[in-house]
Amino acid sequence: xxxxxxxxWFVVLPDAEFPPGxxxxxxxxxxxxxxxxxxxxxLLGSWAAEDMALARAGGRLLALxxxxxxxxxxxxxxxxxxxxxxxLEGALAGVYGSFHVAASLAGHGYVxxxxxxxxxxxRADIGGVTVCADRARTLAWLIGARPDTAxxxxxxxxxxxxxxxxxxxxxxxxxxxxxxxxxxxxxxGRGRTAGWWQAPPAELPxxxxxxxxxxxxxxxxxxxxxxxxVLGADLSxxxxxxxxxxxxxxxxxxxVTATLHWSAPGxxxxxxxxxxxxxxxxxxxxxxxxxxxxxxxxxxxxPRHPLEEPNCLLRDRAxxxxxxxxxxxxxxxxxxxxxxGDHVVVPPVSYLHTxxxxxxxxxxxxxxxxxxxxxxxxxxxxxxxxxxRSYPAWLTTARSRLREAAPTGGAPxxxxxxxxxxxxxxxxxxxxxxxxxxxxxxxxxxxxxxxxRHAWIHQMRxxxxxxxxxxxxxxxxxxxxxxxxxxxxxxxxCLAVRPxxxxxxxxxxxxLAAAMDGLVPERLLDRTSKDxxxxxxxxxxxxxxxxxxxxxxxxxxxxxxxTDPHALRQALLSPGLNTGGAAELExxxxxxxxxxxxxxxxxxxxxxxxxxxxxxxVDTAAH
Length: 623
Description:
Largest sheet: 6 strands, antiparallel
Helix content: 25-40%
Radius of gyration: 24 Å
Distance between the termini: 36 Å
Strand content: 5-15%
């Protein structure tokens, strides 16, 4: 299956009666519909035949949306053994890829996305009936929701949002379903969530884990290779994208690769990418230099259709659109990205906290290596190793540190980096963000009992969240972007490895290097450098200074009370004075751009009406 259409969307309805007008409004926009065995509508939306595999057996239905290794015929055989919702995940054992699952069993419904969050799921309650969709904007359109100011304001935080704030819906009345949870609906139409995914035990040594990771990545890439079709692929010369290219070549793909050569002295991507391309059979390498591409932040004055949430893709959106066009001109039908490799194959160093209690000698040895490499102060190192705070206590502390300056070094915090707000965030934003953190501290548990495990899973889900945005942005540019590192089987393979083996202060990505040994040339696996585009970033801000000034004067963030106008203007026009790095400014630019795009396109483009007709309203009184 291949989820390649930019307009692909779906809504899942329970096997129950609906509020007046709901069904008619959806059918006015949906090109496809599948009914429950009862005859009531179940799935409505728009998808190509290859986007979904649908199985029917004994009055039961099972559908997979996206990239999945199981065909409809295989699913039908498995579905025959399913008697209730608790049997579903067992029936899907061994099915790999990146996909949504939906099932209808005797009036009961089951829907989930992926554990990585690369396939998201959202819910809204309408007149007592729980409706879910793969896009939050679909539900927001359905109930007439507006952006949630507090959630938008939270996106000013950097370097990242903590669990569970990351990945939240941006709309009032629309809630995100946690990637590890499924939404179960009852015959009366009401829904509840239940966990479907658990991380595997971290028990495998490096050699066994590397073999499992190699198999998982091999299957993930092969799933995207189509006989007779051209596959576009990023080839930075770094380990992540290069590994995918060699796996694609192994699967017989006709490859066209794209390499960016940034101008900073000492950048080595071009050299390593050329070395790789020369050893990729039949690959057609394309190289791009900054002079041939749009400047960073090009398109600020051209509001585009908004993605699911504020994001940091604004920087090189025009660049990526150009690359997509070039790859398409060579016949590429999709694009492989190494995105997620950094997040998935290398655990956060806070795994040392647990390792100290299990194997003190190994923990102290690795800590000494990290401390020397990162120049960690002794006191900060001791706090990370010896801290005993719970995750709710960590969230509570985060509330009091929102206005502190971003740290410039030191050992990492055990549960992850504290979120910070830029100086141009308003007092209202600080209050709203602190309230969200406080609510989370009262009701949400960590993703794992061990801090390092929690931080690794959260890191993986952050990669999955961005993979969703990359796919959507790529599809709008005519070339969907796939991130195989964010497939669930790859996550499971990495999490099954002992973190002290997957992470090391003395080697670079040891787990991936071991997994690709013998397939990727040794010289490429030995690379430890990583290129950057800081010169192009600053040049882009300078090039678009006039547009940034216009944004400062007409800021929708300021109009919503999220930012201080004077401080925001200074930040946009004098980015060199900011102390939080690129992430500090880009978080704000992403939020501003998203609000402008929503204002310019109040209705999702993928929900184009099928007929010119007046739409009935949806009764949301109970919402």
